[in-house]
Amino acid sequence: MNRTLALGVAALLAATPLAAEIRIAHVYGKTGALEAYAAQSHIGLMLGLEYATDGTMEIDGEPITVIEKDTQLKPDIGKAMLAEAYGDDDAQIAVGPVSSGVALAMLPVAEEYERLLIVEPAVADSITGENRNRFIFRTGRNSSQDAIANAVALGGEGVTIATLAQDYAFGRDGVAAFKEALEATGATLAHEEYVPTDTTDFTAAAERIFQAMGDIEGEKKLFIIWAGGGNPMGKINAMDPSRFGIEIATGGNILAALTAYKELPGMEGATYYYYEIPDNEVNDWLVEQHMDRYGTPPDFFTAGGMAAGIAVVEAIRKAGGADDAEALIEAMEGMEFPSPKGTMIFRAEDHQALQPMYHFVTEIQDGKDYGVPVLVREIGIDDMDIPVRD
């Protein structure tokens, strides 16, 4: 072989990958106030990829590479990291982030690069609502699913409810959806209270709620929508809302946050996940593997990350590869896929995953240092009329 030909062959080999590779970017808040959520999400994503590929971490012979990017919970950084993942790292699909505010900043990047972003676990309705684009899918539940499930669990004729939420997209979207869902139950929303995300002193907010609710007759509840630290439930409970006839209520949360629930046995609400509730093969595998590997049960966002991992694999298989975004979108619209919660369905209209939720009551159980959310009933996909928001 002459020298010119040899150099040409060498250049061709250098430019040609040895094997096709599926590149998935996990763009999430590894550092910051929600890093516990992020860690669970990443563990779940990796377990989901493992489960769906039967441990091979390959799809139709192509190996999966997962690229991690840290948003630091900052919208501008999340936007830059997603662009870097698509542009520099050539990720075909991205998963994340944790924060709704970060997610909203990232949505246009997916549209610009014409590549898929599977949102998990950011919750704000607007992600698959008014701010959505055709390249966005979400395995995580949205605010309406949280709200409608909690309205089903808490509402009823003669019930009056106040809300306390964080003053950003997650909190405000959550309250708006809850208020809308509550109307169908016959309950009344009497007061809305919003506080900064880093609030630790809830005295003033609680006093305003007590003042608004104190003279109202009948059953009264304070529904708290919260993410992260601060423990508003425990701190407001210490102020004895029962003297005004007010019961505290909230949705589910991670295991660490459930320690505050121990102070409130009998409290009701609706949850996205608790490891002892779902009864299916995927959840059985998740619980067993997580206990074996980490010595603890899987948590709230571990289940969500696993659902995203399974959805990625199912979509790529159905589309015949990861390189064609249009084929992936066609495959995913209306796609049913297994998850630790049972079957999920990507709704074609807005790409939101429809999924069951769980009405629970808190119990104190021996050997557990938190209030245990015990199943009252499963709130199925058909039990919730989740609006398509434009």
Descriptive notes:
The protein is of the alpha/beta class. The chain has helices at residues 3-15, 35-52, 75-87, 100-113, 143-154, 169-182, 203-213, 232-237, 281-294, 300-319, 325-332, and strands spanning 22-28, 58-59, 62-70, 93-95, 116-119, 136-138, 159-166, 188-195, 219-225, 246-250, 268-271, 336-337, 344-346, 353-354, 357-363, 372-379. The chain has two domains: 18-141 and 279-355, 3-Layer(aba) Sandwich (Rossmann fold), CATH 3.40.50.2300; 144-271 and 358-383, Response regulator (Rossmann fold), CATH 3.40.50.2300. The protein contains eleven helices and 16 strands. A hairpin with an 8-residue loop joins β15 and β16. The longest helix is centred in the last third of the chain and has 20 residues, at 300-319. The model is unreliable at 9-18 (pLDDT under 50). Keywords: Amino-acid transport, Signal, Transport.
In the CATH hierarchy, the third-tier topology of the largest domain is known as: Rossmann fold
Oligomer: single chain
Element-level helix/strand string: HEHEEHEHEEHEHEHEHEEHHHEEEEE
Helix content: 25-40%
Instruction: Let me know the CATH homologous superfamily of the largest domain.
Output: Response regulator
Shape: globular
Number of helices: 11
Distance between the termini: 64 Å
Per DSSP E runs of 2 or more residues, the count of β-strands stands at: 16
The fraction of residues in strands falls at 15-25%
Which residue ranges are poorly predicted, with pLDDT under 50 across at least 5 consecutive positions? 9-18
Signal peptide: 1-20
Keywords: Amino-acid transport, Signal, Transport
Protein name: ABC transporter permease
Pfam families: Peripla_BP_6
